[in-house]
Amino acid sequence: EEMRLWKAADFAVPTFDYTEVLDPASDANLNCIESVLYHGGAMIEGCEEPGEVALRRLADDAFGGLQKDPTRDIANWRIVRKEGATSVSYDYLKRLNQHTDSSIPPHGVPALCLLMHYEEGTGTNTFTDGFAVARQLEAEDPEGYRLLATYGYDAERDFVASRVDSPQEYNRGLIVSTLPKLLQLDDTGALQRIQYNEVFR
Questions:
Q1: CA 120 to centroid of chain Cα atoms
Q2: Which residue ranges does the record assign to the TauD/TfdA-like domain (predicted)?
């Protein structure tokens, strides 16, 4: 099956019991994974002791664990506040390193990394229906759509430099370079993926 698109107004997010999805052989586990893959998310209820330990157990037992980063010895990454640190996003004289919320192929469920980071804090994410934008672009500017589906852009990611805010030690460096198309079509010409911003996302 393929990813299913939906609107918030007419979609009920699938809900599962925490204990049931922890069993990898259960129907609840399979249905939860399918919900994440097809709908983009699921709600988990019934966790008696919410917190980092329960969240890690959910990631390990229900979703197969977090994918290990090749530059360190443990699976997840940690971000901490540093005194005097400034965001390079606002300093054009410094290199803007890529964000750290995506996985290295084969892709897992990168959002779990964000959940680990925000488990005791807050965060805001903005979602855009890229497929709807692409359909509108194709209708209003076919040539622009064709260009984005034909030509790629240089993307490079330094996996060590992009984690300067993490207190963890890294055991080696890794730089990945690709030349992806922003709009990626299948053999029939149908849009199947939108890749932007960095090497994998």
A1: 19
A2: 13-158
The whole-angstrom separation of Cα 132 and Cα 36 is: 20
pLDDT tens per residue across span 104-139: 443 444 444 455 445 555 544 445 677 888 999 999
Report whether the peptide linkage leading into residue 14 is cis, meaning its omega lies within 30 degrees of zero: no
Under DSSP, is residue 185 helix (H, G, I), strand (E, B) or coil? strand
pLDDT value of position 53 = 86
Phi, psi of 177, rounded to the nearest 5 degrees:
-120, 135
Distance CA 151, CA 184 (A): 10
Angle at 199 between CA 198 and CA 201, to 5 degrees: 65
